[in-house]
């Protein structure tokens, strides 16, 4: 099975690729990078890894050819956009068009990476990447599974907005105050 990760340079993307390459199932992995200079050294020489240049913000650069599975996410820069909803829709439309163009993608794992741009937080990026990688290649999710097959991933405990408020303030350096 060939799994494509786009964008691959995000923290979650790197974690997913790490998990896929460590998997004994020997899945080949294609990483889509806006800048090929960001490909980690330990990926470059791995026999089951291929780096391709592309950008989820530019549909004509996306090449998913030969891939069976796509693991894709909203890149963290989305959350600094003036209109994150419009940017997310544009990126989703670009990915959809590239998937339809190639015709070989049988499974898509789409995740939000909101908050993944921060060094610390409430969920481990490594754990999210590993979980998404496992979901991407899980053959128990078959054609008989109802679609879309939606998995909600939660941390070890439920966090209220009051729990997250001080973390957000700490991570961004801005003061956040919850109001209803």
UniProtKB/TrEMBL annotation:
Residues 8-119 form the NAD(P)-binding domain. It comes from the Eukaryota. Transmembrane segments: none annotated. This is NAD(P)-binding domain-containing protein. It comes from Pseudallescheria apiosperma (Scedosporium apiospermum).
């Amino acid at each position: 099975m060939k799994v494509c990760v786009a964008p691959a340079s995000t923290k979650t993307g790197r974690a997913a690729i790490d998990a896929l390459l460590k998997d004994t199932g020997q899945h080949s992995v294609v990483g889509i990078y806006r800048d090929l200079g960001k490909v980690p050294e330990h990926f470059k020489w791995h026999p089951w890894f291929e780096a391709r240049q592309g950008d989820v913000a530019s549909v004509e650069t996306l090449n998913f050819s030969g891939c069976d599975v796509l693991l894709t996410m909203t890149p963290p820069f989305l959350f600094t956009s003036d209109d994150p909803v419009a940017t997310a829709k544009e990126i989703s439309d670009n990915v959809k068009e590239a998937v339809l163009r190639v015709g070989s993608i049988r499974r898509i794992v789409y995740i939000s990476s909101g908050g993944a741009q921060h060094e610390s937080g409430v969920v481990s990026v490594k754990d999210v990447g590993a979980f998404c990688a496992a979901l991407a290649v899980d053959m128990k999710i078959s054609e008989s599974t109802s679609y879309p097959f939606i998995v909600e991933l939660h941390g070890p405990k439920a966090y209220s907005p009051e729990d997250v408020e001080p973390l957000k303030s700490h991570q961004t350096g801005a003061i956040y105050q919850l109001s209803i």
